[in-house]
From TrEMBL:
Biological processes annotated in GO: ERAD pathway
Organism field: Onchocerca flexuosa
Name of the protein this chain belongs to: HEAT repeat protein
Gene3D superfamilies tied to this protein: Leucine-rich Repeat Variant
Residue stretches making up the Proteasome adapter and scaffold protein ECM29 HEAT-repeat domain: 713-872
GO cellular component terms, A-Z: cytoplasm; nucleus
Taxonomic lineage from the root: Eukaryota, Metazoa, Ecdysozoa, Nematoda, Chromadorea
Pfam families xrefs: HEAT_ECM29 (PF24492), Vac14_Fab1_bd (PF12755)
InterPro entries xrefs: ARM-like (IPR011989), ARM-type_fold (IPR016024), HEAT_ECM29 (IPR055443)
């Protein structure tokens, strides 16, 4: 709440139209603060009872009230009011004389109001002493505006004494001492001074005593003698010499400076001469040395305030009547202060002291700051004689500073000299001495050279000095100065000094060292800002030269430079709002040159400035140089300095946004022209760059342009597409190549498939899909050659597969286009066909897929070439080549119309490598071709796996049942299969028995009907020969196949032979040695068979049983039962039992068939009986010849014999 109240009060002061009348406001505050009793003396301020009254306010209320009244007083004087919201309120001493004159002007009419104001201020001081409040009270008392009553003055003196005795703060104590000396009467001042002298002689000295002595002795209304003043001086010097306590020492130094400052104006002429003559030269020199040691000391016990006070004392020691020796002694001590390191605040005091020493008692520093201005003081105290003396001293000082001090090797001394020179110029600006006006050029040169200092504070001081010199100069001098500053700001060149015989010349390339250039430029910026604020019209002709550089310097990485340039820019643009727009092209030309400047800060600031310029002021002339700009920024993007790279990234970002926007299809021909300028640079310098950031950025640019450009992109598709395809491989992680080099073939295929999948879903591939609708005939013819080159010679897998995918997208979306460009399609087909020989399986698959989409748009010759390639590779014995063709065939299955005329040549090969259940329709149509291809493969191939695959094909064909009705072709296939059994046993030869078994199951019954007994024995013999092979696995398959042959032919002779062989093998393995009853077949067994072999062949018994019937079947069944009861290995019995259900099931089916046939015959007999009855009844006539033949046949059948109705059948006519 308190802060808000203060803020509102501050706002009320800020607007003069809302400020109440000063007199009314003072009376209002005095009344509201309940100060009426205070003026009548009814309240004792020394008691605590007042604090307890309800109407008494807090101390801060009095403080704010006094400040607010003072601010309104400033408004009444047409001055800038102070801010109530600031934590520390500093006084502006230049306002005091103005306020003093205003107070004098209203003192006659409103003396009571002024008294009330003073009472408010004194009450605020009593509540909370503050420097500014005390100065306000001193202001009223100095000009006699306040007239306190006796009681109130006595009360005020009492609490002032209390604060002086209790306050240990040096500054507060000094101000309170001044106020105390002003509020006392002349008699009281005399008495107080006597008490102070007593305090000096005592052991315990209070802090306020030196200050009271100084202020009491300098009051003009008190007639102090030179002896008394000299006594005070001696006592203060003694304190300084003895270093008695830090507070007393500081108070002694400060009070001595105040005493020396004002004492000459409190004495008459005789007393002044007496005072000066009372001090000998030796004493004077001793005092100077003492003060000089204090000022130049580096001891921590000596505070800055002590040193400042000592320096002020040195300056005020100088009088017009002082000898040259004493004056030079003062200067020597002051110059020695410049060697103190890093104390610029002290050097400003030294500069003022040099000014005070040169001006003597005519120095404006000696004036009464409350009632006198500098001009008024100088007019009253500066005679012509004194002025001539001052001119000589100032000229001598300038010569020492510019020719000696500013060229010292000690940088601290150079900085101090620069500060002294600036202070002298600022203090002498009021008098405009001839020595200064005649030396403005040299002084300006000194300040400009001071801008090259490494210390930024020195540069700022030099620039401020330039501003002072500019104010003093004539119009001609101002123009020369501006021209030199502009040259410095633009080029960093120093003003050239005349070359003397002993002048050292530097090499040309080392003339402008960067550190000097930068410091000079920074200082020139400070000076320019000051001059720009003072003389805008003088700078107008130089704006075209300066604006481009100012624009860039605003983005300098150094915050000091940046702040200086922003202030200059604000000064330039305050009257011209469109400066950037007016000089945009010039700014761009400047930035284009400085982007590759040798200095990193220049490159960085240029990039940042360019980013800002492009985003708001991109003209047509700037657009025309985008290609060059891209090339330069790509280089800067690879800068050694990280901050420069970041700045270049920002510039590129702005440039990209502008480029993409201007390349939009709505811009028509301009967009096409711009694309022609920037795309080659982006692709060559950006995408082709070795810097990854440039690559990625350039790819993003291209992708953004493609999405926005539309039809304007057509002329450039043939360079964009290859670029994007190449990027698919280039942007892959190197880690993938590391994995690929260390992967097996299977792992490599999986990895490459994943890489291809990722590439096809990448942003580059998505961008290529945007391009597909833009391709026309002209573009495709030129693009086709580049695609062919990509497919043929590109190193990256993803690039080649990406090119395939792009062609597939064209085939799907631009079919009409491809139909009109067959020659280009033929080129691609030939390249893709050659690519099928690549070692990478992923490329083979993708090329196969691409071929399947592209073949419909190619010529018949290319289609035939593909078919010939397929046939050739399918007959090859290399698995890899066959897999390639199979991938191609699978891809071609999407476009079967291509193979429509060659199905009979291709389908068998497809089936040979497919052989799945869903191929029955194909087998019915192309069974002969399939069998032919499989048999050729079986008989000619030297690869066992291929022979086994061919056997598997034949098995599948046989199982499908397509040969059940074609007995002749089935017999031919059987003969070929059995003939293939001859020779050695090879891996997978068992597949032949599977094929024979499948053939017998499907067509065995029909073959048995065709074969007679001799043919059956002949067909059986090749199978039976295989049963004597040593390989148990092979032998077992042969036995099973033979058993199936016996089952299907139902030829019990050969079935008995096989059954005997099986039982003999079983008995042979049961006995410990061969028995005498062993048959010849058994004797052929030259080694015992294993139980695994027995387990494999015993299931054949179930099939052989189906070849017998009647008694033979009964005998063999008994043998089976006996086998199951024997002691043979139980797993053999298990194998037999598992297969016996097959026998039982098929036996039941046979009996069911007989039963069903008998029932059918009986039904036929009923029909015949019906016919006979009709004949007897003469309802039908039968042919006699045919009737007799039928009757003879019927009478032989069992069913007719059992029919009672047909007994008299032969009797029918």
């Amino acid at each position: 709440m308190k802060h808000e109240a203060v803020r509102i009060l501050d706002l009320s002061v800020a607007d003069p139209t809302r400020t109440p009348k000063f007199e009314d406001l003072v009376a209002f505050f005095h009344r509201k603060l309940n100060l009426q009793d205070a003026t009548e003396g009814a309240v004792d301020f020394l008691t605590d009872e007042v604090k307890k009254k309800k109407e008494t306010f807090a101390d801060e209320v009095f403080h704010i009230s006094a400040l607010y009244l003072y601010a309104n007083l400033q408004v009444a004087c047409s001055l800038q009011p102070l801010s109530l919201t600031e934590s520390d309120v500093f006084s502006r001493t230049s306002d005091y004389p103005v306020i003093s004159r205003y107070l004098l002007s209203i003192s006659e009419e409103h003396r009571g109001i002024l008294n009330l104001f003073l009472e408010v201020v004194l009450k605020a001081i009593e509540a909370q002493p503050a420097n500014f409040l005390i100065e306000m009270a001193c202001l009223f008392l100095h000009n006699g505006s306040g007239n306190l009553s006796h009681n109130y003055r006595a009360t005020t003196v009492a609490w002032l004494e209390r604060h002086l005795n209790s306050n240990s703060h040096i500054t507060i104590c000094a101000k309170l001492s001044e106020l105390y000396s002003l509020i006392l009467t002349d008699m009281e001042r005399k008495k107080c001074l006597e008490q102070c002298f007593k305090q000096f002689d005592s052991d315990k000295l209070s802090v306020q005593i030196p200050w009271l002595c100084a202020y009491l002795a300098t009051q003009p209304s008190v007639n102090f003698t030179a002896e008394e003043i000299n006594g005070i001086k001696v006592r203060l010097v003694k304190i300084i010499e003895t270093l008695s306590g830090q507070q007393n020492f500081e108070a002694a130094c400060g009070s001595l400076a105040e005493l020396l400052r004002r004492t000459v104006f409190g004495l008459n002429g005789i007393e002044k001469i007496t005072l000066v003559s009372s001090v000998s030269d030796n004493q004077f020199c001793s005092l100077c040395e003492l003060l000089g040691k204090i000022a130049a000391s580096r001891k921590d016990i000596l505070t800055l305030k002590m040193k400042e006070s000592a320096v002020k004392c040195l300056g005020f020691l100088s009088l017009h009547s002082s000898s040259t020796v004493l004056y030079e002694k003062i200067l020597a001590q002051l110059f020695a202060c410049g060697e103190v390191a890093a104390q610029p605040e002290l050097q400003f005091i030294v500069g003022n002291a040099l000014f005070d020493a040169a001006f003597g008692e005519s120095s404006p520093s000696r004036r009464n700051i409350f009632v006198e201005t500098e001009k008024y003081f100088l007019a009253r105290n500066l005679s012509i004689t004194k002025l001539d003396n001052i001119e000589k001293k100032i000229a001598n000082l300038l010569e020492i500073l510019m020719n000696v001090k500013l060229h010292q090797a000690n940088r601290h001394l150079r900085q101090a000299a620069l500060i002294w020179l600036f202070t002298l110029m600022k203090r002498c600006a009021v008098t405009k001495l001839n020595c200064i006006m005649d030396s403005l050029g040299s002084i300006q040169h000194a300040f400009i050279n001071g801008l090259t200092e490494t210390n930024e504070f020195s540069q700022e001081v030099a620039s401020e000095g330039l501003g002072v010199i500019f104010e003093l100069g004539s119009e001609e001098q101002k123009k020369i100065m501006v021209e030199e500053l502009v040259n410095t700001l633009s080029t960093g060149r120093k003003r050239l000094d005349p070359i003397a015989p002993n002048t050292r010349l530097f090499a040309k390339e080392k003339k402008f060292v960067f550190s000097i250039y930068f410091r000079k430029f920074l200082g020139a910026a400070f000076g320019f800002n000051i001059i720009m604020q003072q003389a805008e019209s003088v700078m107008e002709p130089y704006l075209a030269q300066l604006v481009p550089k100012l624009y860039r310097y605003r983005y300098d990485p150094d915050l000091k430079v940046q702040g200086a340039m922003r202030s200059i820019w604000q000064a330039v643009t305050v009257s011209k709002k469109s400066v950037t727009e007016e000089y945009a092209d010039a700014i761009f030309n400047e930035l284009l040159l400085t982007l590759t400047d040798p200095q990193w800060r220049t490159r960085e600031s240029s990039c940042l400035a360019l980013a800002d310029l492009l985003s708001g002021y991109c003209t047509d002339k700037i657009t025309e140089r985008f290609g060059q700009l891209f090339e330069i920024l790509y280089r800067v993007q690879d800068d050694v300095k990280e901050s420069v790279r970041i700045a270049a990234g920002r510039a590129l970002s702005s440039l990209i946004k502008i480029t993409v926007r201007k390349c939009s299809s709505v811009n028509g021909a301009k967009a096409t022209q711009l694309l022609g300028m920037v795309l080659p640079i982006i692709i060559e310098k950006g995408v082709g760059s070795s810097i990854k950031s440039n690559k990625m950025l350039s790819l993003n640019i291209i992708m953004d342009i493609v999405k926005e450009a539309g039809l304007t992109l057509q002329e450039h598709i043939n360079i964009i597409v290859p670029c994007l395809l190449d990027s698919l491989s280039e942007e892959e992680s190197t880690f993938l190549n590391y994995l690929a080099a260390r992967s097996s073939l299977d792992e490599l295929e999986v990895l490459d498939s994943a890489r291809m999948s990722v590439a096809h879903s990448s942003p580059m591939m998505s961008t290529l899909r945007y391009i597909v609708p833009l391709v026309n005939d002209y573009v495709f013819n030129s693009l086709g050659d580049k695609l062919v080159e990509q497919l043929r010679s590109s190193v990256g897998i993803t690039t080649r597969t990406g090119a395939c995918q792009f062609i597939i997208d064209l085939c799907l979306q631009r079919q009409q286009l491809l139909m009109s460009c067959r020659s280009s399609c033929d080129k691609m087909v030939r390249v893709l066909l050659n690519g099928l020989n690549d070692r990478n399986p992923v490329i083979k698959k993708q090329f196969s897929s691409c071929l399947s989409y592209l073949l419909p748009f190619s010529s018949k010759r290319e289609v035939n070439r593909i078919l010939d390639y397929i046939k050739q590779k399918l007959r090859n014995e290399q698995d890899e080549e066959k897999m390639t063709v199979l991938h191609l065939l699978r891809a071609l299955s999407r476009n079967t119309e291509i193979l429509s005329e060659s199905l009979s040549a291709v389908v068998p090969f497809i089936f040979l490598y497919k052989c799945q259940e869903d191929t029955s329709s194909a087998m019915r149509l192309y069974r002969k071709e399939m069998i032919e291809v499989a048999l050729v493969t079986l008989n000619t191939s030297s690869i066992f796996a291929i022979k086994a695959q061919a056997a598997k094909v034949l098995t599948t064909v046989a199982e499908s049942g397509v040969l059940s009705d074609d007995v002749g072709y089935a017999e031919l296939l059987y003969d070929n299969l059995t003939s293939a059994l001859h020779g050695r046993i090879w891996d997978g030869k068992e597949k032949l028995f599977e094929a024979i078994g499948a053939l017998l199951r499907s067509a065995g019954k029909n073959l048995a009907l065709k074969w007679d007994e001799t043919a059956i024995e002949t067909k059986f013999l090749p199978l039976w020969e295989q049963c004597s092979k040593k390989s148990e696995k092979y032998n077992g398959e042969a036995i099973l196949c033979v058993a199936l042959f016996c089952e299907m032919t139902a030829y019990n002779k050969i079935a008995q032979q096989v059954m005997s062989y099986i039982y003999n093998v079983i008995n042979y393995n049961l006995s410990e040695s061969n028995s005498d009853d062993t048959t010849s077949e058994v004797s052929s067994i030259n080694h015992p068979r294993t139980y695994d072999y027995l387990i494999k062949i015993v299931p054949a018994i179930a099939h052989l049983l189906l070849s017998f019937d009647g008694a033979e079947l009964f005998d063999h069944v008994e043998q089976v039962v006996a086998l199951l009861k024997s002691s043979i290995f139980w797993k053999v019995k298990q194998a037999l039992i598992i297969e016996l259900p097959y026998f039982i099931e098929n036996l039941l089916l046979t009996e069911n068939d007989i039963s069903q046939r008998r029932t059918f015959a009986q039904q036929c007999c009923l029909v015949l009986e019906y016919i006979v009855k009709r004949t007897r009844n003469k309802e039908c006539i039968l042919s006699l010849h045919k009737h007799k033949d039928i009757m003879e046949t019927l009478m032989k059948t069992t069913i007719v014999k059992s029919s009672a109705l047909l007994d008299n059948l032969l009797k029918c006519e």
